[in-house]
Amino acid sequence: MLENMQIGFLAMPVVQKLYNACKESFSVDGPLSEEALGKVRSILDDMKPSNVGLEQEAQLARGWKGAMPGTNGKKVRNGSHQYPPPIKYLHLHECDRFSIGIFCMPPSSIIPLHNHPGMTVLSKLLYGTLHVKSYDWLDLPGTADLSQARPAKLVRDCEMSAPCGTTILYPTKGGNIHCFKAITPCALFDILSPPYSSEAGRHCSYFRKSPRRDLPDIDQLCGIKPSEVVWLEEIPPPENFVVRRGQYKGPVIRP
Fold first, then answer.
1. What does pLDDT average to over the chain?
2. Among residues 44, 110, 154, 240, which is most buried (max CB within 10 A)?
3. How far apart are CA 22 and CA 41, in angstroms?
4. Which region among 58-67, 71-80, 145-154 has the lowest average model confidence (pLDDT)?
5. Dihedral sign, CA of 11, 12, 15, 19?
6. Which residues contact 182 (CB under 8 A, 6 or more apart)?
7. Cα-flanking dihedrals φ and ψ of residue 65, to 5°?
8. To 5 degrees, how large is the angle CA 89–CA 24–CA 246?
9. What CA–CA distance (Å, rounded) separates 8 from 238?
10. Is residue 67 pLDDT above 50, yes or no?
């Protein structure tokens, strides 16, 4: 009987193994422990485009060699604005403990700077190349008012290319506030725990750099370089940020 169970586990789709691990590892307050989070991460590390029905898209991305003109948000000849191409979101699962989905990003598309309040996020780039920039808040005295600019420290500012490992951001570290720009066609697999919920105070907020340039007291920076400190201010959701629901074609997750 044990042998049959082992064979069944090996034959189980990777995305089903991932869902099962998430179900065991996450509560309504997030990961049960670092060990539990590690189990989810180890499965996500091995996730491939073919495991979620995206092998054809991944092959196209690998052969991609050009730029897409007129998609940088600047004015085109007739004076109208050409917005970045829309992003597709493939929904796999959502409950009060976690959500699973995939962002399929065309070249030059942008996911603007946004946060994940009280959330832990695992991200895995399935194919393609993108640029990521992320920050964490600097919790200094008198800077907690979100209605005004707050100081933040730079965590990452780099390109990522698949295949690569899973990245994890936490409620207060790891780059909880981040943005992405697709350099080639790419797909980003995301697990959020707990998921966004306005009712529970986990509302997605968007930010931009503030023109404010003064620095907090250098003694409070705890070794952080002044060049890594920026002021961020909250803004309304950008009108040119368009996400459309796409069709998930991978194995069906069985709760």
1. 87
2. 44
3. 10
4. 71-80
5. negative
6. 105, 106, 107, 108, 109, 110, 128, 129, 130
7. -135, 10
8. 10
9. 46
10. yes
Q: Classify the C-alpha dihedral 37-39-40-41 as positive or negative.
A: positive
Residue with tokens 């699973």: 100
Neighbours of 150 (CB within 10 A): 23
| CA–CA gap between residue 79 and residue 83 (Å, rounded) | 13
Nearest residue to 14 via CA among 46, 39, 41: 46
Q: Is 167 exposed, middle or buried (0-12, 13-18, 19+ CB in 10 A)?
A: buried
Q: What's the order of all strands across the beta sheet hosting 99-105?
A: 167-169, 120-127, 186-193, 99-105, 87-94, 243-245
- Rounded distance between C-alpha atoms, residue 100 and residue 115, angstroms: 17
Q: How many residues does the chain have?
A: 255
Lowest-confidence region among 20-34, 113-127, 206-220: 206-220
